[in-house]
Write a structure and sequence with these properties.
It is built from six helices and seven strands, in the order E-H-E-H-E-H-E-H-E-H-E-E-H. It is an alpha/beta fold and about 200 residues long. The chain has one domain: Formyl transferase, N-terminal domain (Rossmann fold, 3-Layer(aba) Sandwich). Helix 1 packs across helix 6 and helix 5 crosses helix 6. It is globular. The mean pLDDT is about 95. The structure holds 5-O-phosphono-beta-D-ribofuranosylamine (GRF). The site of 5-O-phosphono-beta-D-ribofuranosylamine has 15 residues, from helix 1 and helix 6.
């Protein structure tokens, strides 16, 4: 069984999509064992608790040195035997210590078609504002592996979403979540669970 941790910072709609997908049997060889929030106010914590999943806060603000934060995150994950890490609306940058501890085993969902509108400073509504400012007619979401470059790891899945006349950043974000993010992330988790489960059983 692949032990999954989901790292969150906000509302947790992507976490909820994973919880619902797991309940529907989308990744039978994986189990969400932990939700880790970078701040105590993340509503995602309530979603975890409602689903009976251990929910902890490793507050970014509590650590002056980013390297100490990374170590606290690694310790929280490794002490629970986590195999696969999913960043679902997680807003803190994870440093080398975390990436080295989980090589090719950290997933991130980004709300654009990378390499457009990504990298430092592109998160949440800012991504959709940039897409609208540029005037693109199609945007979407990307699931990628995490490396030390923000939004720079290997792309695993992408899904396109139309930009509609009159879209605001909020209406576009909602459509990208509904039509792309909430579908892609469970698919990517299922892919990685198959890979990791296969590796451990030599399939
Ligand atoms: C979403 O736009 C997601 O693409 C980005 O963070 C935002 C909030 O996600 N990664 P959630 O509702 O907290 O899952």
């Amino acid at each position: 069984m692949v032990k999954i941790a989901v790292l969150v910072s906000g509302g947790g709609t992507n976490l909820q999509a994973l919880i619902d997908a797991q309940a529907a049997g989308a990744f039978p060889n994986g189990n969400i064992e932990l939700v880790l929030a970078s701040n105590a106010k993340a509503y995602a914590l309530e979603r975890a608790r409602a689903a009976g999943i251990e929910a902890i806060v490793v507050s970014r603000k509590s650590y002056e040195d980013p390297a100490d934060y990374d170590q606290a995150v690694v310790q929280a994950l490794q002490s629970r035997g986590i195999d696969l890490v999913v960043l679902a609306g997680f807003l803190s940058i994870l440093g080398k210590a975390v990436i080295d501890a989980y090589p090719d085993r950290i997933l991130n969902i980004h709300p654009s078609l990378i390499p457009s509108f990504c990298g430092a400073g592109f998160y949440g509504l800012r991504v959709h504002q940039a897409a609208l400012d540029y005037g693109v007619k199609v945007t979407g979401a990307t699931v990628h592996l995490v490396n030390e470059i923000p939004d720079g790891g290997k792309i695993l899945l992408q899904k396109a979403v139309d930009v509609l006349p009159g879209d605001t950043p909020e209406t576009l974000q909602r459509r990208v979540m509904e039509q792309a993010e909430w579908k892609l992330l469970p698919q990517a988790v299922a892919m990685l669970c198959d890979q990791l489960d296969g590796a451990s059983t030599g399939k």
